[in-house]
Amino acid sequence: MPQAPVCYTPFMERRIPHASSLIESLVGLEADVRYRRLARGDEPEFLHVSGSVPVLVSAPHGATHMRDGEKKEEDEYTAGMAPLVAELAGAHAVVARRRSRTDPNADPRAPYRDLIRSVVEGYGIRFVLDLHGVRDEREFAIALGTMDGESCPGQEDLIIQTFEAYGFGREMGPADRLVVNDPRFTGGLSQDTITRFVSQDLGVPAAQVELHEACRIVKRFKDAHLTTPFHGDRERIERVIRALVTLVEVLA
Predict the structure, then answer these.
(1) What is the pLDDT of residue 71?
(2) DSSP class per residue in 193-250
(3) Torsion angle defined by CA atoms of residues 55, 72, 231 and 60, in that order, rounded to the nearest 10 degrees
(4) How many domains does the chain have?
(5) Is the pLDDT of residue 1 over 70?
(6) Burial, 31: exposed, middle or buried (Cβ in 10 Å; 0-12, 13-18, 19+)?
(7) What secondary structure letter does DSSP report for 28?
(8) Predicted local distance difference test score (pLDDT) of residue 68
(9) CATH code at 247?
(10) Strand 92-96 and strand 46-49: pairing?
(11) Helix H segments across the chain?
(12) Is pLDDT of 154 > 80?
């Protein structure tokens, strides 16, 4: 049966600050991330922000990581975006905030995965949103990966409707385009991702959300692996934040 259209109430919008405050908060949270540096001493490699809403927002590629013996660049601002959305919506967040010796998203032995399991099982999480980033050459704003619907069969339509309500749709131009289960961004059909792990091993619905650079990077920090200065589209970044906050609330 198709999902009913998403209903938005003033309560949802009343909790979200003005756009300038959202952007400032995002930059401040991202400033805590050290893309290239390993955690030191008692410094945590991963951060768990606890909440009261049974939804978890994850950012496994918030800092540099290793995949198949090669260093992979960070998905800038995902480690700032996840806790910001969680704080605004009252949800949980787990993020990689320091360089990892593993791939937190794809390595089944990664400590990040142990933390995800602990939070999901310990707090009765009902849905996991896993945030990632794509480069500037991609011709879409958001790529939703649900393993062709397998990872969240009861929520996929609701997620699409929520993004559409904030101006991200499948019929929009590239700057606002939403793609669903693009062959390169399925969420885990060919990789053992967090989305696959959560939905199949933990039995909790999950979805992967890939964000274009323009929809997440306010300004590039000096320690980023990509050295070309970059400033994203603040209006679109704000819409992404608001869409994700609403998404948490409708999925809870």
Answers:
(1) 85
(2) -HHHIIIIIS---EEEEEEEGGGT-SS--TTSS--S-----HHHHHHHHHHHHHHHHH
(3) 10
(4) 1
(5) no
(6) exposed
(7) H
(8) 78
(9) 3.40.630.40
(10) antiparallel
(11) 10-14, 19-30, 78-89, 111-122, 156-165, 194-196, 234-251
(12) yes
Does any domain span residue 100? yes
Instruction: Say how far apart CA 94 and CA 77 lie, in whole Å.
Output: 14
Place of tokens 């927002």: 57
* Distance of alpha carbon 139 from the chain centroid: 19
Residue 3 in domain? no
Distances (CA, A) of 58 to 47, 61, 78, 209: 10, 9, 9, 10
Provide the 8-state DSSP code for 174.
G
What is the 8-class DSSP label of residue 169? B
Nearest to 64 by CA among 234, 226, 212, 240: 226
* Closest of 164, 176, 140, 178 to residue 246, by C-alpha: 164
Longest Cα–Cα distance of the chain, Å, equals 52
Domain region containing 230: 10-251
> Residue 4 domain-assigned?
no
The whole-angstrom distance between residue 203's C-alpha and the CA centroid of its chain comes to 19
